[in-house]
Amino acid sequence: MADHYDPILFEALDPAEQDALRQALGDDADTSEALALWTALRARLGADLRRDLPEFDLLMLYALGDADPAVLAPEEEARLIAARPSLEAAIAAHPALDDVIRRIRADQQAFDAVWEEATVAAKPAVRQRASDRQPVRASGTRRWVWRSAVAMSVVAFAAVLVFILQRDAGFETYQTASGETEVVALADGSMVLLAESSRLMVDTKDDGERRVRLTGEALFEVLPNGEPFVVETATALTTVLGTTFGVTASEVETEVVLASGAVELATRLEPEQSVRLEPGQQSRVVGAQAPEPPTRTDIAEALAWTGTWHFQATPLGDIADRLSAHYDVAITVDPSLEGDRVTGPFSSDRPVAETLRALAIALDARIDGDEASGYRIVPSAP
Amino acid sequence: MQPFDSEAVLNAQAGDEAARARLLADLEPILRRFFLSRIGHRPDVDDLVQNTLVRVHTGLEALQNPARFKAFAMKAAVFEVQDFYRGRYSGREYLYDPDQPPHDPAGTESSGLRVDIERALEVLTPKARRIIELREMGYPYKDIAEMVETTEAAVKMQVKRAFERLRGVLTVLALCYVSLVSG
Q1: Class for domain A149-300, per CATH?
Q2: How far apart are CA B145 and CA A44, in angstroms?
Q3: Is the pTM higher than 0.80?
């Protein structure tokens, strides 16, 4: 299907050579006209992109900060707060931006891996898979009277193992112990923060479907790629297209809280019995019952275990109360700013002064006072 | 004192030239490994390392929290490699700065093509649009193929199909024009 206009389509020539080729195409009016339209079409798509995303570096901060808010400086965090609504609108309008976000996060993960390898001589056990653990060895004493019983147990165990292996074939398993959390980076660029004593099985089959199984608690940041992302738990199916949400699952109950985007929660037995959640809402599936109607919830509180506060149009007054309790320092807000709303993730392990500075820049405010006397957020202009 | 602990960073920020040189020297092999892992063994790795070190050097004073040096260096490296993907290191890879409005010597937008463009946008498939948008951001077709998880040949086939659809649009528009004139 090689054609004489390929060099223009694929930009194999520099602009001067392209002009020369265009002139040579003068005899072929139809192709010349089509190429002119092609050039105009590309220019139009590029212009639309620049209109919706005037600052590319903001997209980079969005990709890096949503994966880990702690990497952003207060000024960067403030820029993101201000730009988040228009950024999310641009991402929704241009699916290519999701591809870019995935690429940026892959770069970030690659850097983290190289850094860790270079700076940590003995890697701490942040991540522990069941398969990595050393088996506990029994005493070396051997008595033949036990052997037949042991052999029978081995046969029974092998049968169970074969069943489990068949059921779990094509899944990669991540398991956290008590007091341990783990960040799992999925192949599609999505991230999962697995809480303590939880287990996540990730479908590794290359069939285009994105599916995980969860027991315990996890926060999901799902990047949209056109394919649904399904979280299976003992009682429920949670289907998303691209969003941040937390799931807590036991054998009898599944609770979902939504920080951003949209998810659909259904019972496993009757998937048509579903509810759709909006940001700031939660719902539950108990046993085989239909999902409970969504209700408003305190997302920051529900996802506090992640080390990140996910504020969703949260009034500044409420944020100040939370920060004040978390850092054990007095924080007051000028009445004129109390109702100002903030959306976005904030790391809870960064110094209080940094978080306050980010909020102040974003809201065109300033911070008075200090940790000893207490902070006060006031308008920057008197 | 560890290579990147707060004390080492603070010393470098405070004007201790030896501390600054040590910090950058410790960072250099990490950057090199990172860029090699992202773009492979290419001559551009040297430029990427150098430019990232310049970013770190010039931005170090502005780093408020020295304990966040890793995040600071990571951002410098990721910004640099994104610049590389987007053709900033290759004058031949793109026709104009992806972040600037394109030069339009023929004035195509103002010469009666607007209606055709609207029609062309309608027939563009979502996949082709995604590819063209990525190209407009400066990513070369090879990288676009990785980003949309396919081959470079498949990406180029999508582009060619989109172009052929455009020719179809022009044919239909011409037929409509003939029909209007003769009708």
Answers
A1: mainly beta
A2: 22
A3: no
